[in-house]
Amino acid sequence: MPSLTVGLLKRGNHSRATQHPTNKQRLSGKVRFVNKKIGITAVALASAVTILTSVIFAQRQKVAAPATSSIGSYLPASDAVAVIDVKRTLTQTMPSILGSDPAKLAQANAEVDKFKTRTGIDLRSFDQMVLSVRYTYPSATSTKLETVAIAHGKFDPKSVVASARQAAAGKARDEQYHGATITIINVNDELKMFGIWSMKVDDLAVCALDQNSLALGSPETVRAAIDAGRKGLAPADLIALATRDPNAVMGFGANMTPELLAKLDVGNDTLAKDIGSIKQAYGSIGSTQSDVTLMVVARTDSPQSATNLSDTVEGLRQLGGLFIGRMAQPRRALAESALTNLKITTRGSEIEIRTQVAAANLAALIK
User: Fold this and answer.
1) What is the pTM of this model?
2) Is residue 18's pLDDT more than 70?
3) Which residue range forms the structural domain that includes residue 49?
4) Is 292 exposed, middle or buried (0-12, 13-18, 19+ CB in 10 A)?
5) 261 shares a domain with 159
6) Are residues 253 and 204 in the same domain?
């Protein structure tokens, strides 16, 4: 790696208290960190949206509300919430991203069909899916995301459950819980959600909640959804964050708890301190006919922390630009576009990060 000039980064014209580290002090440790992890810019941006690592995009238009269930129906107490327009994702966005690569588009559609074959659940029948996530910590160094998906639409939930039971080919069992029937099927397979997001599915619990809503998850998380429907446990603050942009194909809101942030080994004390100041993260993903947009907002504990974090992200962007030349096409074009269009705005205790890339370039990320 060539030597780097620590004077590369420049703070804005704002003043700094003398106890805060200088540019050179803050950057000196980061240079070594970037040398070890060339993708640090992407990591820094993605750390606030770990739950949302999949590439799910769509055309900009209003999200249609389900016929009878509100967006918060059956959501248990959560650490993070994501709202996905399933219909637009599958019928508009994926074809626009993969249209230039017919083989990848065919493969993505085949994965959606495989999901239906193995689980009996046709994702194309859903209009909207709301994800509720709880963080758990099985060990001192690991974090597990306990997730339940609430699907809304004009489908017949009882028919979907019957299809799931049929697809299980005798490997299904029913469990009664507070008057609801939870069907648990043994899948034991590697599947791709929406044709692109790989996940290992062992036992999948399915439960009809009302005439337009279905719960999908583990038996424990589905039971939590049933309880939430009875007790009204929906996290109103996270739902508000996840639905700020009515034109987004996906919106999210997440609490960045001290326990979660402590698990992030970023390898640099200054960077860890900046990331540790984040209390919540929210944002959205959307697209036009040609471009995909990403907006992420980190809500920190103070305006000073937001300024420090903004400086860190700006520095990582400039350092990241040094490594783009080593990338092979078409990933290089995608990275160049993302960095060129990256906009960082600080407002009070929040830092907003926006960027956009050509939709066709994203096909390179989908294997």
Assistant:
1) 0.78
2) no
3) 24-63+243-367
4) buried
5) no
6) no
Q: Which residues are CB-neighbours of 61 under 8 A, at least 6 positions away?
A: 88, 247
CA atoms within 13 A on the CB side of 216: 22
Query: DSSP labels for 320-366?
Result: HTTTGGGSPTTHHHHHHHHHHT-EEEEETTEEEEEEEEEGGGGGGG-
Q: What are the angstrom distances between the C-alpha of 165 and each of 93, 115, 147, 185, 367?
A: 31, 14, 21, 7, 30
Cα(158)–Cα(146) distance, rounded to whole angstroms?
A: 25
Inter-helix orientation angle 303-320/269-276, to 10°: 130
Using alpha carbons, select from 183, 124, 130 the residue that is nearest to residue 154. 124
What does the pLDDT average to over 357-363? Answer: 83
State how far the Cα of 174 lies from the Cα of 89, in Å rounded to an integer: 32
Number of domains in the chain: 2
Residue pair 87/126 in contact by the 8 Å Cβ criterion: yes
Domain boundary (233, 262, 289) is at 233
Is 189 in the same domain as 273? Answer: no
pLDDT at 15 over 50: no
User: Distance of alpha carbon 128 from its chain centroid, rounded?
Assistant: 15
Check residue 281 and give its pLDDT.
97
Reported as a single tens digit per residue, the pLDDT across 110-149 is 989 998 999 999 999 999 999 999 999 988 888 899 999 9
| Contact residues for 159 (Cβ-Cβ < 8 A; gap 6+) | none
**The two structure tokens encoding residue 72:** 């918060």
Q: Could you report how far apart the first and last alpha carbons of the chain are, in Å?
A: 29
Of 182, 202, 233, the one marking the end of a domain is: 233
Same domain assignment for residues 190 and 264? no
Residues 250 and 227 in one domain: no
